Amino acid sequence: MKTTRSLVLLALLGLLGIGATLWLQHAATPRIAAEQRALQARRLLDVLPAGSYDNHPLDQRLPLGDVQLSNSRLLDGYLATRNGQPSAVLLRSQVSGYAGPIELLIAIDSQGRLLGSKPLRQDETPGLGARIAEWPNAWLQVFSGKSRHDPGDAAWALKKDHGQFDQIAGATITSRAVISALHDALRYFDEHHEQLLPRAPHE
User: Fold this and answer.
1) Which pLDDT score is estimated for 32?
2) Of 29, 48, 96, 119, which one is least surrounded by beta carbons within 10 A?
């Protein structure tokens, strides 16, 4: 009888322990998910200058769909705002590199100037084109502050193609692809400015 009571007590304690563990896991799941989301947001949003937005841009998607451009595709877009006014757009772009698709996040301010860009995915050759994935990236920083017309359309190319920009050493195709994607995004922004930057209702 005593043994039976002990076994029942142990079983109850075991069930209580399992229940407590499950409850703690359930209670912690939203916090863990929120922390993972915040980490992902920080990783993506470091292309935007600190203090340039006060919303959660990744929660404010732009109705782009899948847009085919001259040399690349726009997969998605997000709006950054400050004090309720649009401050920048983030465009997720895909272009064909040397070894496969290169996916970029491209930030453009409300005046159509490039704030920054970073690769989200690439399969380029290690030691050559794959250097596009280094962060921070000195080569990509060269394009910050540029716009569709600064330099002009014809200058958005490598120097070897009579354009303005140097290439990543040993990675001509990768460099051409990224420059084309940046130029495509700036041109798209310029041509769809009103759609991408909706004004506040009182304006």
Assistant:
1) 55
2) 29
Structure confidence at residue 201 (pLDDT): 44
Residue 197 in contact with residue 203, Cβ under 8 Å? no
Q: What DSSP character marks residue 113? A: B
Instruction: Indicate the helix (H) or strand (E) that contains 7.
Output: helix 2-45
Q: How many other CB atoms are there within 10 angstroms of residue 145's CB atom?
A: 12
Q: Are 91 and 63 in contact, with CB atoms under 8 Å apart?
A: no
Q: Model-level pTM?
A: 0.78
Sign, CA dihedral 154-156-160-165, equals: positive
What lies within 8 Å, CB to CB, of 134 at 6+ separation is none
Strand partners, 81: 86
pLDDT of residue 21: 73
102: its two tokens: 């290169």
List Cβ neighbours of 76 (8 Å cut-off, separation of 6 or more).
Answer: 61, 62, 64, 91, 92
Ordered by start, the domain boundaries in the chain are 1-45, 57-196
pLDDT along the chain (203 residues), means of 10: 69 73 69 52 80 93 90 96 95 96 96 95 90 91 95 94 94 96 97 82 41
Ramachandran quadrant class, 127 (left: phi over 0; alpha: psi -120 to 50; beta: rest):
left
